[in-house]
Structure formats: C-alpha cells, structure tokens
Amino acid sequence: MKQKIITALTKDVGLKILAFIFAFLLWLVVVNIDDPTQTRTFTSVVTVTNGDVLKSAGKLYEIKDGINTVSFRVTAKRSIIEKLSPSDFSAVADMNNLENEERIPVTIAAKSYANYITISSKQNYLYVVLEDEKTQRFVVSAQTTGTVEEGLAVDTVTSSPTVLTVTGPEDVVSSISSVVATANISGVTSNFTESVIPKFYTERGDEVDAKELTLSVSTISVSVSFLNTKAVDVVVKTSGTLPDGLTLDSIKTDPSSVMIIGETSALNDVTSVTIPESVINLSDLTGSFITTVDISSYLPTGVTLADSSSAKVTITVLMAGETASTFDVTADNIEFRNVPEGMAVTLNSSDVKVNVFGSEAELDALKTKDVKGYVDCSGIAVGESQNAVLQFENIEGVTIQNTSVTVNVTEDDSKTSHATEDN
Q: What Pfam families has UniProt attached to this entry (predicted)?
C-alpha cells in the first residue's frame, strides 16, 4: 500500500510541478485583476514646527502667498488606497531646516498602512517670507459708542490695562498710531464694565488688520460711569440804569439754556445758571451790543457742563425799536491810522464780521460798502498776530459795534530806504 502511494506521487512529477506553477500564476493574475496597484495624489496641510527658532532671532515668518499645503503621489493596492484620505498623512516643515531664508523641506509620512503604501520621493517645500519682529507699547484710548439714555451723561471712561504691548511684523506694528477700546452705551442706565477686543488704527484713521499681531492681553476691560443731567436756563442780571434816551427792549442769551451734570443731590439745588450783574452795567451802554462770556466760573459747586462747548454764551442787548444783524467788512474798507514811521500794518484776514444794530428798515437799506472802520495804530510794535480794536463811526440810525481784530506789524523797508536816501 505504501509503495502504491509513493508511486502515485512520483509518477509524472514534471507535469505536476508545471501544473502547480501554472495554478500559482493564474492565482496572481486573478488577484491583480481583482485588486490592482493604483497611484493617487493627495493634498495635506503643512504643520510648521520649531517656529521659535526664528522668534529668538527677532524674526517672524509668513507663508508665501498663503499656500500652506503640499501635494504628493501615493501608490498602493486598490483595496488600501481607497481607504486613504489626506488625514492619513502628516506633512511637517521643521523650521530648523530652513533653506536660503525662503523654503523649508516638507517631510511626508503615512499614519496608516505605512507598510503597504509607497509615497513618491519627490521633495516638497513650504515657501515662507521672513520679516523683522517689533514690539511696542501703546496707550489704550477708552471710548464709547451708541446713544446715552435720556437724563444721563457719560462721566468717565477708563480702561484696564491702560497700556497694551503689541508684537508683530515691523511694518504692521510701525503703522499703528492708536489703540482704541470701545464700549457700547446704548440702552445702559447704570455704571458698567465691558470686555472688548481692541482695535488698531493708522494715523489716517484706517483700521489695521490684527491677525498677525500678538497682544499682551486679548481683551480690554472698559469701565463707564454716568452722572445725572438737568437742563437749566441761563439768566442775566444787570446793574446800573440806562442813560437818558435809551430804552431797553430785551436781553437774550445764546444758548438760552444749558445741560449740567452732577450728583442728584447737587442738581436738585440748581434752578439756573446766573451771569452776575457785574458783567452788564446798563449805565455804561450807548446802544445795543453783543458780547460773549464764559459761564464756567458761574456754575454752582458740584455741577459741570455736560458739553464744554456750551460754556461760551452770547448775550445780545437790544434797545427798543432795534434789531441786530451782521455785516462782513472787507479789508479794503478798513483804514490804519497813526501808523508809526517805518512800520507797515496789515489785517490778518480778508474780512471781518461785525454786529450792526438799527431798525429793520435802516438795516435793509444799509450797504456793505458803507460800513467802514479804522484801527488806531498809535504805540503799536512790530510783531505777528497782534490784537487791535476795530472802531466805526456810527451811521445815522445805525450802531456798529467795535470789535477785536488781528493785525500783523512789520518794518516798512521802502520807507526806511527812502529815509536813508534823503540823508
């Protein structure tokens, strides 16, 4: 029996070996037809490592043209390659390997199926642009936006911190002129603190893109406190009595009322802002006139003006039957009298606006060319932008108020040379 088995195994050995080889080759053909080798291109985002190498040298980098990806070819069986995605690969650029200060070799490695795939040997690079780094400290300007609620006024606006340290590309940091932290006060009725992201502006007011900047803090705390407000009338007191022949018509102020701010207890005690009688002495008047006073010093203790621009109040005093108007007097209609020898005087503007009083009919009939004035230059000295009094001789039925003008006084070379020649 044993001999029969041996005979069966050894009979036609060559044919049997040939059949085995043929079967193996057929298996290979079938396998490759069913799961062939394929090559595909993948694109991955590059991760930069050891960026601090540049920072320690006072440099920053920016990826050139914003392209931070690389493409590469991978070869593997179809059953493998169909399972792969870009997340199965790592693309790393080590800043220690920076070449020519412009490119970094990218190392590509497989995270999955590493033993079953082949990555093309072509060297990929990440291209960068180097920039000088700059650090600068800026004072934070705390501001508000929005509409303050009625009956309130912003008292103080502060920031914490008050100084912000900014680090980034030198050209970007150098373009910054101001750092602003703005809190929105719309709908707010009590003191509050808000965390806001600071904004950066150039000298021209253009906003600076902060994406490349590193800040000492990411947000700024802006604290806003409010005070109560109250509208009060401006009252004018007078002293003395009008000379014979004059009858007072009205005394008006512009503005007629102002907004004041302060604690509630202080505001409750204030009913008006009074301009004292020492300002308007009726005994000194010769007719209607207009004057401007600063009411800041007349405010009661504990209150201030909500708007500092309203501190200047214009007082118009009109006599009976008169009205007020303004005329522009040209420089040609202004005469300089008693100019010292060897000096020249010129007006520091092309015209002067003056107050004119009279009946409506008289003012309507008055022509600009008829309004002429003069400056008495006695005792004047050489110098730029000097104040002088522009005076007018009254036209019948019309009063023109004297006003202050600015003049320039220089040495008159022509007169000096003539005097030398005469000698």
A: YbbR
Phi then psi dihedrals of residue 226, to 5 deg? -120, 155
Structure tokens, 136: 């600068």
| Alpha carbons 167 and 345: distance in angstroms, whole number | 56
Q: Which of 228, 285, 283, 218 is nearest to 260 (CA)?
A: 228
- Report the DSSP beta bridge partners of residue 69: 45
DSSP conformational letter for 35: S
Is the distance from CB of 329 to CB of 356 less than 8 angstroms?
Answer: no
Give the three-state DSSP class for 338. Answer: coil
Walk me through the domains of the chain, giving residue ranges and CATH numbers.
Answer: 37-122 (2.170.120), 133-226 (2.170.120.40), 228-319 (2.170.120.40), 324-416 (2.170.120.30)
Rounded to the nearest integer, the mean pLDDT of the chain is 88
Q: Which of 103-112, 232-241, 257-266, 378-387 has the lowest mean pLDDT?
A: 378-387
Closest by CA position to 91, among listed 125, 55, 114 = 125
Residues 6+ apart with CB under 8 A from 37: 75, 76, 77, 78
Task: Please say whether the beta carbons of 143 and 158 come within 8 A.
Answer: no
pTM of the entire predicted model: 0.54
Q: What angle do CA 383, 389, 363 make, to 5 degrees?
A: 140
DSSP 178-227: EEEEEEE-TT--S-EEEEE--EEE-TTSPBPP-TT-EES-S-EEEEEEEE
pLDDT above 90 (res 253)? yes
- Cβ atoms of 313 and 234 within 8 Å: the answer is yes
pLDDT at 421 over 50: no
Beta sheet of 383-392, edge-to-edge order: 334-337, 373-376, 383-392, 403-411, 343-347
pLDDT tens-place string over residues 263-281: 888 898 899 999 999 999 9
What is the per-residue pLDDT for 5? 58
Q: Please give the Cα distance from 362 to 394 (Å, whole number).
A: 13
Rounded CA separation 261/342 (Å): 55
- Residues contacting 78, CB < 8 A, separation 6+: 35, 36, 37, 38
